[in-house]
């Protein structure tokens, strides 16, 4: 970085004014979850419908399934739609982040053992995107003869060809090239 670089500070009063950026983060984590399963153990007898789990039973939550259930996220549950995270106040017209029902969004787990880095990751994500897109825009580098629509379709195919390993990994990242273009 240049010695003259001075980042714009995203202060505590400014952070809540950027709900769309957090909506992008949440929707990305919902569809491309970093941790495909969360392992837990029961501490006491648990009965779910007609199945009883004894204490000390291993339970694995499949976050990929939970994050894509149409019964939770709607018929477009597999579509990238950050607006599902936003709600507007009728009186002020101000957008705020919609909180999902407990247990339906597990990007940082949930309950007493949720990820302690949750808030830090949110602030970093918003800060990086804010700073980056304040000066730049991102565009797909199209192959010769490729239309914009073909390039978008190709990007979507590459993203859908991701695999859960220890974390989610895109299998062919080299198949899509981006460039950053200065604004203005």
Automatic annotation (TrEMBL):
Cross-referenced InterPro entries: Cyt_P450, Cyt_P450_CS, Cyt_P450_sf, Cytochrome_P450_monoxygenase
Cofactor: heme
Signal peptide interval: none
Any one Gene Ontology molecular-function term assigned to this protein's record: heme binding
Record key words, sorted: Heme, Iron, Metal-binding, Monooxygenase, Oxidoreductase, Virulence
Protein family according to the UniProt entry: Belongs to the cytochrome P450 family.
PANTHER family cross-referenced by the UniProt entry: CYTOCHROME P450 (PTHR24305), CYTOCHROME P450 12A4, MITOCHONDRIAL-RELATED (PTHR24305:SF166)
Protein name per UniProt: Cytochrome P450
Species annotation: Monilinia fructigena
């Amino acid at each position: 970085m240049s010695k003259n670089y001075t980042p714009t500070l995203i202060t505590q009063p400014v952070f809540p004014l950027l709900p769309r950026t957090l909506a992008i983060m949440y929707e990305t984590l919902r569809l491309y979850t970093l941790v495909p399963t969360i392992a837990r153990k029961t501490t006491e007898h648990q009965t779910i419908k007609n199945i009883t789990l004894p204490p000390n039973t291993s339970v694995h939550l499949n976050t990929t399934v939970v994050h894509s259930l149409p019964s939770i996220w709607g018929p477009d549950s597999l579509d990238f739609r950050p607006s599902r995270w936003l709600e507007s106040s009728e009186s002020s017209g101000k957008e705020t982040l919609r909180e999902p029902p407990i247990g339906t969004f597990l990007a940082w787990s949930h309950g007493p053992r949720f990820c302690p880095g949750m808030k830090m990751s949110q602030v970093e994500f918003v800060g990086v995107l804010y700073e980056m897109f304040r000066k730049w825009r991102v565009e797909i580098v199209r192959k010769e003869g490729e239309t914009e629509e073909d390039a978008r379709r190709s990007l979507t195919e590459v993203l859908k060809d991701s695999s859960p390993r220890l974390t989610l990994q895109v299998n062919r990242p080299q198949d899509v090239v981006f460039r950053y273009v200065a604004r203005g």
